[in-house]
Amino acid sequence: MQRLTVSTSEALDRFISRVSRRSPLSDDEAAALLALPATIQRARGNADIVSPGELVEQSCLVVDGMLGRFVQMVDGRRQITAMYVAGDMCDLHSVVVPRADGALQALSNVVVLRIPHDDLRRIAKRYPAIVEAFWRDCVVDASIQSVWMANMGRLDAKARMAHLLCEIGTRLEHAGVAKRDRFAFEATQSHLADALGLTPVHVNRTLQDLRSTGFVAIGNRRVEISDWAALAAIAGFDPAYLHLDQDTVSAATAWRHAPASRA
Amino acid sequence: MQRLTVSTSEALDRFISRVSRRSPLSDDEAAALLALPATIQRARGNADIVSPGELVEQSCLVVDGMLGRFVQMVDGRRQITAMYVAGDMCDLHSVVVPRADGALQALSNVVVLRIPHDDLRRIAKRYPAIVEAFWRDCVVDASIQSVWMANMGRLDAKARMAHLLCEIGTRLEHAGVAKRDRFAFEATQSHLADALGLTPVHVNRTLQDLRSTGFVAIGNRRVEISDWAALAAIAGFDPAYLHLDQDTVSAATAWRHAPASRA
DNA sequence: CGTCACTTTGAGACGAGTCAATGACCGTGG
DNA sequence: CCACGGTCATTGACTCGTCTCAAAGTGACG
Question: Where residue B3 falls among pLDDT bands split at 50, 70, 90?
Answer without folding.
Answer: very low
